Amino acid sequence: MKLLDERIWSLFKRHWRHTLTYWSVFFSFGLCIAFLGPTILDLRCQTQSTLQQITWVFFSQQFFLLVGSSVGGLFKKTLLSSLSALFSCTLIISLVFAIIPLCHHVVLLSIAMAIAGKAMGVIDTIANLQLVKLYQKDSAIFLQALHFFTGLGALVSPLVADPFLAEDSCVLGANWTTNSSSSSSSDLHHLRSSLAGHGAALQNISQYPLNTDGTVITRVSYAFWIMALINLPVPAAVLTLMYYERLLPCFSNSPRLLDKDSLASTSPAGDSGQGHGSVFGCYNPAKLRNRPPTFFLLHALGGAILFITDGIIGSYAGFVYTYAVSPPLLMAHKTAGYLDSIFWASITAGRLAFIYMSYRYTAPRLLTFSLVGVILVQCTLLIFYTSCVFLFIGTCVLGLCISSVFPSMLAYTEDLLDYKGCATTVLVTSASTGEMILQLLVGSVIHSKGSYSFLLCCTIASFIGFCLFLLLLYVQHIHRNRYTDSSKNMDMKEKPNPGGS
Predict the structure, then answer these.
(1) How far apart are CA 492 and CA 501, in angstroms?
(2) Is 178 helix (H, G, I), strand (E, B) or coil?
């Protein structure tokens, strides 16, 4: 145990500058992903748009996050391109925070969020790729820490915004009266909680008519400027790492540190990482012609599992409030509003706990524990669907169980594929796609079948995810055997024939 401690600590000391930098950019990612839900109503006032119009801002951010994730691998061929992309993207996030208060039309706001979403997607792919490349078989621990920083940023963002959010309507029409204040405040609290889960509950907002014309009174601009300042040390950290690695123009004639200690040299197979790229250009037919079918199946199954589990996270965060305030629970709006915060806090705490768990246990064990735990929690929530107390307990346990699936699956799939394929790009893109698409599907089912179907959809998705994981274990067993055999055959073909032809 001591030897493992010393080895991992030695690895961290060797790469601590890179590691801390990648962790910090994921704090920036979390900061940006969580601010929109709490502030969306104030942004509606700022742009003087309807609720239906402003919720398209959510779609803009999510769609371009998916685009950024899919093309992020293009920037990882060299350390210079990776760090340059991270510096640009983290700086863009600060700039977007700064200019959001200047966007007084919903189209301008959507464009700003699209730019931020693409930057977030690139950050998501590159930071995961580079950490896997640095630590490889030991990457699970550091990936858990990476995703903990996402949760930390997601917790900080709403806390910064909260003091500046409007208590009542932030657009005062000519017929505004004191008597309408309390009802408007209640509606605003209900809407804010409904929209906290990345704007998933779009079907239920038309019943709340709010003013679009009148005097705008909102202080949310200060929240964005504060977040822009909080985020500025992140691009500064990336720039500092580039300075240390002598990647800045002023060092163009100097020998670079990465030349004498290339990150690519850490690969046991000597892979330079050129197989990684955008999700569309990942599979080069010339390079992958001799790969066994299981090679592609592992990519597909790993992506499908994260499609399901990240979709569950997005759906649960988006609709647990709607479920809680609907029959049979009929929970008070203010009380139900805490569910989303508890869910994200438990995910953050779970990722912190799994940093140690990843050191003690293998990725397959952690994934089995997590996916079985998710199923048990979902089934118990279905059984005790009338209990408000158990909904809070189940929300907390669900967050703890599902928190480690993404980093564990990423580390495990890359390990199965010997760090040669496009696993990280495919898995990150699949997770982003699942989070967006499953929310829309679950939202449509809830709208047509009722709020109880929310738990049923999440439970079915949990079973599908676990079945896919069992299939992944079976395929990896076949892949290990076939890949070893094919490698031996390739080695035999490459050896010169001493007897001639």
Answers:
(1) 15
(2) coil
Q: Residue 377 is part of a domain; what is its CATH number?
A: 1.20.1250.20
Q: Is 60 exposed, middle or buried (0-12, 13-18, 19+ CB in 10 A)?
A: buried
Residue 95 lies in a domain: yes
CA dist., res. 241 & res. 261, Å (int):
15
* CA–CA distance, 120 with 429 (Å, rounded to integer): 12
3-state secondary structure of 171: strand
Residue 199 to residue 39: CA distance in whole angstroms? 11
Residue 171: phi and psi, rounded to 5, are: -120, 110
The 3-state DSSP class for residue 268 equals: coil
Select from 210, 157, 205 the least CA-distant residue to 184. Answer: 210
Non-local CB neighbours of 103 within 8 Å, separated by 6+ positions: 46, 47, 109, 112
- Residues 421-473 have pLDDT tens digits of 578 888 999 999 998 899 889 888 888 888 888 899 999 999 999 999 999 99
Joined together, the tokens standing for residue 408 give 């564990």
Range of the domain at 284: 279-487
Residue 429 · residue 66 · CB < 8 Å: yes
φ, ψ at 421 (rounded to 5°): -105, -150
For the chain, the helix, strand and coil percentages under 3-state DSSP, each to the nearest 5: 75, 0, 20
One domain for residues 89 and 195: yes
Model confidence pLDDT, tens digit, residues 341-398: 899 899 999 999 999 898 889 999 999 999 999 999 999 999 999 999 999 999 999 9
Dihedral sign (CA 283, 314, 355, 371): negative
Chain centroid to CA 323: how far?
A: 24
Using pLDDT thresholds of 50, 70 and 90, give the confidence band for residue 259: very low
- Cis upstream peptide for 235 (omega within 30°): no
Burial class (CB within 10 angstroms; exposed 0-12, middle 13-18, buried 19+) of 292: middle
Identify the residue with better confidence: 10 or 493: 10
Q: Are residues 298 and 214 in the same domain?
A: no
3-state SS of 158-170?
Answer: HHHHHHHCCCCCC
Q: What is the C-alpha to C-alpha distance for residues 434 and 312, in angstroms, rounded to an integer?
A: 8
